Batch of 2 targets.
Target 1
Amino acid sequence: MRDEDELDRLIDKLIPEAKVRLLTGADTWATAAEPAVELRPWVMSDGPAGVRGPSWDERHTAVLLPSATALAATWDEPLVERLGSLLALEARRKGVHVVLAPNLNLHRSPLGGRHFECFSEDPELTGRIGAALVRGIQAQGVAAAAKHYVANDSETDRLTVDVRVGERALREVYLAPFEAAVAAGVRVVMAGYNAVNGTTTTASSLLSTPLRTEWGFDGLVVSDWGAVRTTCETARAGLDLVMPGPEGAWGEALLRAMERGEVAPHLVDAKVRHLLQQADWLGALGPVGRPSNRPRPRPAAVRDLVRRAAAAGTVLLANRDVLPLDAERLATVAVIGAHAARTRTQGGGSAGVFPQAEASVLDGVRARLRGRAKVVHVPGPGLGGPPPALDEALSTDPDSGVPGVLLRVLDADGIELHAEHRSTARQLEPPLPDGAHTVEIRAQLRPRASGVWTLGIAGFGRMSLRLDGRELLAGDFPRETDDPALVHVTPPVHTVTAELTAGTLPLLVARRELAPDTGRAVVVSAAPPVPDTAAALGAATRAASASDVAIVVVGTTEDDECEGRDRVHLRLGADQDALVRAVAAANPRTVVIVNSGGPVELPWRHEAGALLLSWFPGQEGGAALADVLFGRREPGGRLPTTWPAALADAPVTSTAPSGGRLVYTEGLHIGHRGWLRAGREPAYWFGHGLGFTTWEYEDLTGPAQVAAGESFTVRVRVRNTGDRAGREVVQVYLARPGSSVEYPERWFAGYAAVHARAGQTVTAVVRVPARVLRHWDEHAGGWRTEAGPCRVLAGRSAGDVRLDLEVELPAAD
Ligand code: BGC
C-alpha cells in the first residue's frame, strides 16, 4: 500500500476539475479513471446473496446464496466466511471489485421490507456474522461494503425518513455492527438514504465520529445510489464518493462551491486520498500488475457449499416425532403448495440476481425419492401476488420458435433498431441503440390450462399490451416514486385478464415507450387461471390423506417482502393458512416448510406435525431441504430474530414515520429485549431451533471476578441426550438486576457451537466480549462498565435459559 507522501504526490498532480470528477461514479456501477495518476476504474455490484455483476441480464447468472437471515441463522462464522470468499470469487469472475454487502441494519420491526437482507435483531450477532462475511470477501482481495450506515432499518419513506434515536441506543445497538465490521477491516462503508436525528446520513457528522475518529476507519465512504441530494452539506461531511454517476449533486456544483470557498480544498483532497487508497488496495492504482491466478472453485464444490449452507440455516421450529423422514418407509408423499414447485429462493430488490440454477422443494424431494416412493404434487389455492415474468416454460419467441421471448427496440417510426432472443420477459436493462424510442417484447404464449389468465406489464410511462392484435391495456403510467429500487428493479405491475385456451399459441405483444426519468425496465408476466379455492383445498386434503407424509410449502410473495416498501401485515397471503389447516387435519404426519425471508404469523403452528423455516434458501434450497427432511443433514439453524405469534404483540408494530420522523421509542429494547421487557411470549424466541437431537444443560462455570475492561469466558457443559449426533448452539445472555443504570431485562452476549455424538458430554467455551459489558454514558459521552454483580445465563434461546451464575464486574471506562 502506498504511504501518505506518495498519495499526496499523486493528489498534487490533479487539478480541481480532475479531483471532483473522480468523486462521482463514471456510470451506474464504475468509478472514473484518471490516467494522470494511473488510476483505473473499479466496479461495485450488489450483494448480498449473490454478485449480480455490472449488468442486469439473465444471461449473466450468479451463484445464489441463502438470504442474509438464513446466513445469520447458521450461527456459524467459519461457514459464513467461506460463503464470503465464494462471493468474492464470483465478483472476480464478473470483473467486480467491491461487493455491496453486508447489510448491517437491524430487524427492528418484523415489517421491515429488507428484513430478509439483514441478519438479525441483535447487534452482537449481526456484528459477528457481518464481520465473518467481510473477512471472507476481503480475504480474496475484493472489498466489502458495510451498509446502510446507519439506522436504515425500514423502507417506508426511506429516501427522506428522519430516524430519531437516542445516543445510547444508536451507539449500543445500531452503530455496533458497523463498529464490528470496521474492526474486521471493512474497506467501504455505504451511507444510507435516511436521516438520523435531523441530518441525512450522507451529510452526517456520524461519518466522522465515531467512524473515523474513534473506530479508525481508513476506507472509503460511498453514498447509497441516489442518496446525495445536496452539494455543500454532503461535501463538507465525511462522504467520499457519490453514486451513481456521471450526473449528480457534486461535479460542477462542487467545483463552484470550492471556488466560492464554501467547501475547503483539503476536504476534497481527503476524499480523493480515500479513493486512491481504495484503488491501491484493489490493485487499480499504478502499473497494471500480473493477473492473479486464483483457482476457480469447482462447480460441484460450489453447489455443495451453498447446499450445506442452506441446510445449516434451516430452522426446525417444532417437531412432533415426524422428522427426519425415513425414505425406506414411505410409499407415497404429497408435496403441496404453490411454493413447493416455485420455491422462492431470494428476496426482491437491488439484491436480486439471475441464479445459475434453482431447485424447488418438489425437485429436491423427487430427486431424493426417485425409484423409491411416489411423489404427488398438488399446488393448492392460488397465491395472489404479482404474476411471474414470462419465461421459457410459458412462452416461445415467435421469430425463432425457441422457448423464451423476442426483445425488440424500435425508433419513433416503429422501425426496428435491434432484435434479440431472450429467455425471460423480465428485462431491466434492454439495449438502448441511438434513436431508441420503444422497447417491445413479443411472445407466443403456451397456456397449459384453459380459462381466465392474468397478464401483466410493469414499467413506467406509456405502455400497451396486445393479444393477437387485440388491445388489452394501453395508457400512460407516470413514475410516482423516486426510489431507485422501484423505478429500476420492481416497477409496479399493471394487470388485465384474458381468456386463453390450452393448446393454442396466442401472440402477446408488450410495448413500453422510453422517456427521461422513467427507468429502462419492462417486465411482462402471466399467471394461470386461479383455481377454485374449495376444489384446490379438497385436492390437497385428498392427496394428504392418501399419503404417508404431507409436505406443505407456504410463503411470501414479492408483494409481501421486497426492497423499497415495508410489509403491512405478517399474514401468509391468500388461503395458505386454510391450506395448512386442511392438510394437517387430514394427515398428522404433515411437515410445513415456511419459505419467507422474515417472520410470518403461523396461527396453525400447534397443528402441524413438524415446522421448518427455510428462509429464502438460495439456489440449492430444494436439495438442502430434502437433505433435512430425510435426515441427511441436521436443520442447523437457530432464529436470529424473535418470531411473533401476531404482529400486534411485537415491540415495534409500525414503521410509518409521523411528520417525516420515525422515533425509536423503544430505545435499547429491540427484539428479544423488548419482548422480555413487555413480559410477552412470542411464537418463537431469538435463538430457538431444535435440530434433530436433544440436549441437557449440565453445568455453567465462570470467573468469580472479571478483570477491569476485559472479556471473560464461561464454560457450559452440555450432554447430547438424543439418539443421534448433533450440533448445539449454546447461548449466553447477561442481566444486571438491581442496577441503577437502565439495561435490557437480559441481552445476548455470545455463543459457541458444539458437536456431540449421542450420549456424549461436551463443553462449550463462550467468550463474553468486554463490549457487551459496557454501556454508553450519555452524560459523559463515553463508554463505561458499571461495577457490581452481573448475572450470566446460559441456554437454548432468549426465552429458554437453563443455567446461571454471577460474576463481579469492576468499573471500567
Ligand atoms: C440500495 C442499496 C444498493 C444500491 C445499488 C440501493 O437502492 O439501497 O442496498 O446497494 O441500491 O443497487
Target 2
Amino acid sequence: MLKGKSALVTGSTSGIGLGIATGLADAGVNVMLNGFGDAGEIERLRAELEQRTGVKVAYSAADMTRPEEITRMVEDAETQFGSVDVLVNNAGIQHVSPVDEFPVDKWERILAINLSSNFHTIRAALPGMKRRNWGRIINIASAHGLVASPFKAAYVAAKHGVVGLTKTVALEVAETGVTCVAICPGYVRTPLVENQIRDQAKVHGKPEAEVIRDVILAAQPNKRFVEIKELSDLVLFLCSPAGASISGSALQIDGAWTAR
Ligand code: NAD
C-alpha cells in the first residue's frame, strides 16, 4: 500500500523515531533517518535497515536548531528519493526545572528542536506534497501537548505549540490529499525518559523501580509505558487510506492520562 513512498523522520537515531522509521521501512517506504549519535553506529543502523527491508535508507545529520540545515535535509531527501510523502516531526529534548530558574539557553533549545523545527520541515516539504496531492505530516507531540506538569515549562509550551501548528496546517491543506496530525503519547521508555528516571531517583532518593511507579507513571492510569511499536503502528494506520480524514487531530495514546 505504501510501497514506493518516501519518508523523513527527524530524531530517528534513537527511541520513538527509530521505531517509526523502522516500521515505515518494513512497510516498503524509503526512509531518511536524522539525529545525533556515534557516526559508526548510525551507519551500521542505516545499512542494516536498508539490507533487511530492501528500501532506500538515507541519513541526514541536520541539526534541528538550524533552519538552513533543515531546509537542506528536506531538499536532500527529495533529491535522493524523488519525494517526501510522509514527514514525521519527532526530534525532541527535555529539561526539568522550576520556571523561575529555567536556564534561558535550555528554553531556546527546547523551543527550537521541539517546535520550530516542525515549522521548518513543514514549510520545506509541503509544496511537493501539495503538487503530488498526497502527503502525511505527523507531529510527535505529547500528552504534555494537552495538559501540563510542573517544572516542564519549555517542553509543555513547545508541545502545546505543536498541537496548534498541527491544527493550522490541517486547515490550510484541508482540500488537498495532505493531512496533518499530532500524536500525543504518554510515557514511553526511551533514552529521554531513562534520563528523567535517573534524575528523579536522585531528587527523591528512591530506587528507580519506585520512581517509575510513584513519580513517572503517577499520571498514567494504566501504569505501563506506551510501547514504541504501538506508536509506529499508529503512524502506519495514519498513512493508510483509513487515515485520509484524520487531520487536525491531537491523538492521545496515553493509557487515559488526559482523560482526567
Ligand atoms: P530520544 O532521546 O530517544 O530520541 C530523540 C531523538 O532526537 C534522537 O534521535 C536525537 O539524536 C534526536 N535529536 C535531539 N536533538 C536533536 C537536534 N538538535 N537535531 C536533530 N536531532 C536531534 O527521545 P524519545 O523519547 O524517542 O522522543 C522522541 C519524541 O517523542 C520527542 O519529540 C519527545 O518529546 C516525544 N515524546 C516522548 C515521550 C516519552 O515518554 N519518551 C512521550 C511523549 C512524547
